[in-house]
Amino acid sequence: MKQIRRIGMFTGGGDAPGLNAVVRGVVKAAIHAQGWEVFGFYDAFRGLVRGEGRWLQWDDVSGILTQGGTILGTTNRDNPFDFVDDHRYPDKRRDASRDVLATCRKLKLDAIVSVGGDGTQSCAHRMSQLGLRLVGVPKTIDNDVCGTEITFGFNTAMTTATEAVDKLHTTAFSHHRVMLLEVMGRTAGWLALGAGMAGGGDVILIPEIPYRLETICEAIRQRVRRGKHFSIVVVAEGARPVGGQVVIRQTVPGSPETVRLGGISAVLAQQIEQCTGIETRHTILGHLQRGGTPSPFDRYLATEFATSAVDLLARGQFNRMVCVRRGKIDSVPLSVPGSRPRVIAPRCHAIQMARSMGVCFGD
Ligand code: F6P
User: Fold this and answer.
1) Considering only 37-41, 62-66, 132-136, 257-261, which range has the smallest mean pLDDT?
2) Which residues pair with 236 in a beta bridge?
3) Those residues with Cβ within 8 angstroms of residue 105's Cβ, 6 or more apart along the chain or in another chain
4) Strand partners for 233
5) Could you give the CA distance from residue 118 to residue 107 in angstroms, rounded to a whole number?
6) 142 catalytic, yes or no?
């Protein structure tokens, strides 16, 4: 097997706290442990299609461990197999996968580290079928990448969302209101469940358990009967009523994630106020969840993933994604993350624990 001397790396999809920790970990382990050179591509697959990026030296990644975002830039709208060269003309699309291969040949890259969520890894898997050698690192605040028990970014986002629940609690109590907090999570409710439980939410609505408005309102009325004149509802952006649809904010054709959600909390707030007669407000936490300094947990996990990715490449274990399985670092085939999202099983321990304390899931 051809020995590795140069590798490429990119960060793809929506950003997540800990991306820079991965970039740092990959560059340092590649240089220090293997003596390789590392090329960092700008803006995910866009950089690979266009050959844009730079060789990363030790000093380039020194001091970025605690920084949010990614020094390489990212995007969640570029798909190399359905590529838009100029986003002012979104209808002009083409298959640019051969350009990616040409870039890697030109830079004499022996393998690529692909840092991203399910959309990014599924494109990476398709590129591996064209002969590119890759190793994936799972990222997303949503924690929904199939094949790993946890992604970096989730812990920080859950902390941010929990702090928001804590703050809403005091104002909800003072005004005797129902407060809704909408958090991210298109297909999986890990953030809503995590922040809802850690923040002591009364109602938690997740994509995996469709809700009934009447059930939510009855839970709120019951609290009033117990003397609690305020309630906290934590709702994932992908939550939907039984037999109903999610609330779509925007569609981005061709993107690895075509649908952008948002706004369910505004719809629900109006319905809850009408149904219960209690003043109701909503807050959409939005991209605050993706920003900020990564938590110590995420910095550690991102670093562990990064060094494991370099180790996989060094051992010739291509086209795999590093992961956490049964609490330990491991790897799975790169085909796994794109196969389906990792969702919450409605009968899992966490849901049962919440139900046993009277948390309402709206069903
Ligand atoms: O994939 C992570 C995520 O945070 C989703 O939960 C959310 O729907 C999406 O990104 C929003 O992405 P953007 O608004 O940046 O397109």
Assistant:
1) 257-261
2) 183
3) none
4) 180, 203
5) 26
6) yes
Neighbour tally for 323: CB within 10 Å: 24
Q: How much distance in Å is there from the Cα of 362 to the middle of ligand 1?
A: 24
Q: In the beta sheet, which residues pair with residue 321?
A: 136, 332
| Host H or E run for residue 252 | none
Q: 118-129 and 97-106 are packed helices; what angle lies between their axes, rounded to 10 degrees?
A: 70
Phi-psi region of 51 (alpha: psi -120 to 50; beta: other; left: phi over 0): left
Question: Could you read off the pLDDT of 49-73 as tens digits, one per residue?
Answer: 999 999 999 999 999 999 999 999 9
In the chain, how long is the greatest CA-to-CA distance?
72
Spatial contact of 332 and 321, defined as CB atoms under 8 Å apart: yes
pTM over 0.85: yes
Ligand 1 pocket residues where CB is under 6 Å: 13-14, 76, 117, 140-142, 184-186, 237, 260-261, 290
* CA dihedral for 130, 133, 135, 139, sign (positive or negative): negative
Q: Which helix (H) or strand (E) holds 25?
A: helix 19-29
CA distances from residue 296 to 58, 117, 288, 299 in whole angstroms, order as listed? 22, 21, 18, 5
Q: What's the CA-to-centroid distance between 118 and ligand 1, angstroms?
A: 12
